[in-house]
């Protein structure tokens, strides 16, 4: 699988340590990340709505719609649903002894 | 998810949060499912304890938020579950006083293709990398099986359960590494995951939290105080029996508390249940693993950073890599055009010829390396390996009679055999086919130093697999037997002015226990070292 480097995520400047600043920091980080993602995926938006003609292996030209299928990060916490760190509560059943 | 699904082990806060969430859903009927999913509205409701924020994928088309997350071998299995499991195993070994046996087996591991020998005992290692954890997964079951040998009647069940649990997680990991799947392989994976979940309760007591530990200590104190007073009143002859009974009851109560308070509720334990769906939807798991994403970091980012002037480096890194990539694509296009017979300018053709890498034919054969200087004939060879020349001659004649065609046989006179020139070597390069690949080989270098020390430490005589018969013998080993190398040597025979070189290896076979049948507990075949004669 080819891996292309399209951009480097910027690191926003750090604020002083306090709970309020921490909240603001999270917000800034989330907004920055969203801005970068928008910038990278922006050109694909029109193709995602209308489709783009792409050469197919069988020699025909087909109308294709790009779909985002993966976000590969260290851990599920880094899946940026809200820009914060959402840790899901899950329940794994465990068989009791005997 | 309903409160019932959250389960009794989910803790009180989950049910409370769920009730709040339910109330919130009732009170805000205007939110339709689309806006709910995409979180289009930036809504924060502190009073309900629910926070809704903007999603980074907001505004992007054809993005389904639950899909992008991919299962990851490196962080979910190697640095996640393996790490947790090693903590449990260490607790288990400590409880059964087998830590030393585990460390001894760990340190005595022999080299094997694609496996790095650990240099320290398990407990001496402070930090683990993903690569080391993957390495650990390869040998863990064997080491644990060795550490849990020689058990008494009370240990049979827990040891069996612990080994089954570890085995099923390792088997699951092996299945998850497959690059292509069939319904059978996926069902195997499911089966192993189910077996792991069914047997993991043996390690539940080692998932004890600090709070539970405190509770258990408190409970023990509360139980001990009145009992000590009671014991003072009974005659000394009965005290011992009473103390034993008390201890047993104390242990039971402690275990009951631990089992009711501890759980396996953590994210990575849950993530393995999504592997199957992911394979159905997106294909194999290693394709999306972060370890492959971390590999190009060096080429794509670090090299660019080194080339940059470190001022506003991001742009320089991007342009540096972008340029290289564009040139590579351009060259590939030109090569394609050249093959298709397009008319290209001469300087382009010259450049393509110049930059084309020379094809390196890979010889997939075994190569002997690193000759030892002071060995000239069979007598020297015997002295170097601590084997008598008579034994060597006898074995050579036997080999010659059994395995060589009549025209290439060695002389059967021991006096002539002894005088034949011998070269002793210490390394054998063996090409090993890479797992699930065709035509891709790893070179494994088997060392054989005989009686001589290797790196001034101990002598190193590696084990190798030898095809010793047809596929129908030796049970699960399919005609292969493990053997320890004793010597790698060549014998040169000049006959009718023609030189013949025999490339030979002296090996000591290991013998099979239970005629190569895999154990029903850990699924491994046991072998043992025979006395060397």
Write a brief structural summary.
The complex is a heterodimer of chains A (98) and B (533). With 98 residues, chain A is of the alpha+beta class.
What is the topological layout?
The complex is a heterodimer of chains A (98) and B (533).
Chain A: H1 19-50, E1 52-55, E2 61-64
Antiparallel strand pairs in A: 1-2
Chain B: H1 3-6, H2 12-27, H3 33-38, E1 43-45, E2 50-52, H4 73-95, H5 99-107, H6 130-147, H7 156-176, H8 183-199, H9 210-233, H10 236-261, H11 267-271, H12 275-282, H13 290-294, H14 297-307, H15 313-339, H16 346-355, E3 367-371, H17 378-385, H18 389-403, H19 414-419, E4 422-433, E5 441-447, E6 463-467, E7 480-495, E8 498-512, E9 527-529
Antiparallel strand pairs in B: 1-2, 3-4, 4-5, 4-7, 6-7, 7-8, 8-9
Secondary structure: number of strands of chain A: 2
Poorly predicted regions of chain B are 1-15, 30-48
Counting helices, strands and paired strands, the structural category of chain B is: alpha+beta
Give the overall form of chain B.
Answer: flat
Average pLDDT score of chain A:
74
Intertermini distance of chain B = 68 Å
H/E series of chain A:
HEE
Q: What is the residue-mean pLDDT of chain B, rounded to a whole number? A: 81
Q: What is the H-and-E element order of chain B?
A: HHHEEHHHHHHHHHHHHHEHHHEEEEEE
| Percent of sequence in beta strands of chain A | 5-15%
How much helix is in the residues of chain A? Answer: 25-40%
Oligomer kind: heterodimer
Radius of gyration of chain B: 32 Å
Rg for CA atoms of chain A: 20 Å
Structural domains of chain B: how many: 4
Portion in beta strands of chain B: 5-15%
Count of β-strands of chain B: 9
């Amino acid at each position: 699988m080819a891996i292309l480097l399209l951009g480097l995520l910027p690191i926003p400047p750090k604020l002083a340590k306090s709970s309020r600043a921490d909240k603001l920091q999270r917000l800034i980080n989330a907004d920055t990340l969203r801005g970068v993602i928008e910038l990278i995926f922006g050109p694909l938006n029109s193709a995602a709505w209308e489709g783009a003609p792409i050469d197919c292996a069988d020699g025909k030209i087909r109308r294709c719609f790009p779909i985002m299928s993966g976000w590969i990060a260290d851990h599920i916490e880094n899946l940026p649903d809200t820009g914060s760190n959402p840790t899901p509560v899950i329940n794994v059943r465990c068989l009791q002894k005997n | 998810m309903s409160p019932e699904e959250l389960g009794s082990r989910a803790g009180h806060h989950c049910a409370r949060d769920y009730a709040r969430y339910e109330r919130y859903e009732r009170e805000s009927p205007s939110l339709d499912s689309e806006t709910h999913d995409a979180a289009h509205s930036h809504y924060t409701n502190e009073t309900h304890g629910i926070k809704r924020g903007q999603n980074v994928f907001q505004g992007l088309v054809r993005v389904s938020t639950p899909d992008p997350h991919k299962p990851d071998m490196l962080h979910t299995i190697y640095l996640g579950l393996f790490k947790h499991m090693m903590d449990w195993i260490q607790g288990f070994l400590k409880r059964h006083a087998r830590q030393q046996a585990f460390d001894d087996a760990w340190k005595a591991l022999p080299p094997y293709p694609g496996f790095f020998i650990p240099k320290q005992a398990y407990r001496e290692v402070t930090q683990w990398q993903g690569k080391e954890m993957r390495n650990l997964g390869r040998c863990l079951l064997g080491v644990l099986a060795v550490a849990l040998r020689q058990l008494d009647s009370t240990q049979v069940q827990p040891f069996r359960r612990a080994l089954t649990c570890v085995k099923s997680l390792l088997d699951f990991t092996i299945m998850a590494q497959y690059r292509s799947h069939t319904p059978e392989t996926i069902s195997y994976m499911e089966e192993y995951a189910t077996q792991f979940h069914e047997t993991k309760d043996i390690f539940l007591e080692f998932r004890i939290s600090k709070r539970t530990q405190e509770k258990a200590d408190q409970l023990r104190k509360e139980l001990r105080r009145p009992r000590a007073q009671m014991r003072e009143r009974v005659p000394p002859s009965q005290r011992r029996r009473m103390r034993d009974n008390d201890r047993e009851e104390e242990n039971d109560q402690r275990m009951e508390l631990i089992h009711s308070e501890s759980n396996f509720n953590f994210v990575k334990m849950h993530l393995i249940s999504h592997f199957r769906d992911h394979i159905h939807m997106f294909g194999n798991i290693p394709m999306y693993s972060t370890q492959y994403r971390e590999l190009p970091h060096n080429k794509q980012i670090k090299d660019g950073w080194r080339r940059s002037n470190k001022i506003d480096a991001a742009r320089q890194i991007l342009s540096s890599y972008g340029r290289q990539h564009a040139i590579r694509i351009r060259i590939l296009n030109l090569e394609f055009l050249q093959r298709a017979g397009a008319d290209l300018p001469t300087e382009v053709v010259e450049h393509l010829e110049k930059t084309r890498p020379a094809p390196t034919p890979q010889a997939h054969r075994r190569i002997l390396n690193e000759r030892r200087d002071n060995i000239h004939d069979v007598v020297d060879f015997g002295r170097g390996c601590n084997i008598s020349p008579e034994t060597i001659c006898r074995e050579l004649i036997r080999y010659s009679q059994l395995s060589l065609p009549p025209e290439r046989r060695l002389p059967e006179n021991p006096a002539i055999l002894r005088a034949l020139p011998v070269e002793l070597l210490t390394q054998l390069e063996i090409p090993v086919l890479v797992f699930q690949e065709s035509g891709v080989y790893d070179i494994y270098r088997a060392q054989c130093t005989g009686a001589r020390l290797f790196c001034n430490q101990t002598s190193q005589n590696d084990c190798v697999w030898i095809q010793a018969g047809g596929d129908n013998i030796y049970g699960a080993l399919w005609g292969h037997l493990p053997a320890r190398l004793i010597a790698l040597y060549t014998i040169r025979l000049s006959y009718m002015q023609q030189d013949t070189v025999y490339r030979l290896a002296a090996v000591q076979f290991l013998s099979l226990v239970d005629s190569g049948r895999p154990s029903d507990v850990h699924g491994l075949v046991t072998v043992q070292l025979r006395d060397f004669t």
